[in-house]
Amino acid sequence: MSGPAAGFDVFDVHHHVGRAFDALGGELADVSTGGGDAEAEFASVELRERLRIMDGGGVRQALVIPGHGYLRPNGIADTRRVNDHIAAYRDRTPDRFPAACGIVEPRDGALGLDELERVASDLGLVAISFHTRFQGVSMDSQWVLRYLERMGELGLVPIIHAMDDTPEEALWKLASIARALPDLTILALDAFGGYEATRECFFVADVAPNIVFDTSLSYNFDFIEEFAVRFGAARVVFGTDLYSHPVGRRISHLLPQIVDSSLSAADKAAILERNARQLLGVPV
């Protein structure tokens, strides 16, 4: 792969797929160009834009995650539909999206446990994403903890959005659930989203060594580089929080900063290539 990631086979652990504005009550522009089915046309444009952004930014592969803003008038039936769609998205372009992540909703209670079984056995998803600011619960909800315990038994990777500027996703809650399940590796997304949160991540990483952090939403790589030196590059994975259409334009500005950093070539390769693939069971 050429461009900003020359010399690295980059894997992006944080790509969202879906209609970004549904939860906000907004309407996307009709992307149909020939009078055909607008939803199918949107999907075609979305995939084309995602691949264009990836190719231009030097990213070869990515984990795809449904957007958490999807509408749920039919409850768990809508969640199942979203999980079916993300599995199909993976299957359409497996060379670029070799792994997919699903969703369960804590407000569905025991039905979510059944969905965990289904996505693991029937859909072959490798992870489950939580974004509790969209899910109506706190990150340390007892249902989240019950799901995480079952996920450990099923071999599903927990992916938890931890945007510290919202009480539902406070970093102290991330540390709390990680310490409650010390044998379960948790991937935290968005935790480096601000200066204070980034500094707090140092404390969280110290008290909860089973948390791995992605790079999404960080202003620059400087503090993450310091973090990787202190805790090891194995605790960091490359992620961009990409929504390809209509809000995506480019791959994260952090990629060239990682390549140009003072980390060793082995540590850069760990962050950009190996860590996420190993965690998700994707061949390196």
Task: Describe the protein.
The structure is a single chain. With 284 residues, the chain is an alpha/beta fold. It has one domain (7-280): Metal-dependent hydrolases (TIM Barrel, Alpha-Beta Barrel), CATH 3.20.20. It has helices at 38-57, 76-92, 110-123, 132-135, 142-154, 171-180, 195-207, 222-231, 254-260, 265-280; strands at residues 10-17, 59-66, 99-103, 127-130, 157-161, 186-189, 211-214, 236-237, 242-243. Strand 5 (157-161), helix 6 (171-180) and strand 6 form a beta-alpha-beta unit. Helix 2 runs parallel beside helix 3 and helix 3 runs parallel beside helix 5 (142-154). It is globular. The two termini are 15 Å apart. The model is unreliable at 29-35 (pLDDT under 50).
Keywords:
284 residues; alpha/beta; TIM Barrel; globular
In short, what is this structure?
Helix 2 packs parallel to helix 3 (110-123), helix 3 packs parallel to helix 5 and helix 7 (195-207) packs parallel to helix 8. It is built from 10 helices and 9 strands.
Strand order of the largest sheet: 8-7-6-5-4-3-2-1-9
User: What about the largest sheet?
Assistant: 9 strands, parallel
CATH architecture tag: Alpha-Beta Barrel
Which percent range describes the beta-strand content?
5-15%
The N- to C-terminal Cα distance equals: 15 Å
Helical percentage: 40-55%
- The arrangement of helices and strands along the chain is EHEHEHEHHEHEHEHEEHH
Number of domains: 1
Structural class: alpha/beta
Instruction: Tell me the number of strands.
Output: 9
Question: In the CATH scheme, what's the topology name?
Answer: TIM Barrel
Which of globular, elongated, flat, extended, rod-shaped describes the shape?
Answer: globular
Q: Could you report the average pLDDT, rounded to the nearest whole number? A: 92
Note the total helix count.
10
Q: Low-confidence stretches at least 5 residues in length (pLDDT < 50)? A: 29-35
Rg calc:
18 Å
| CATH class assignment | Alpha Beta
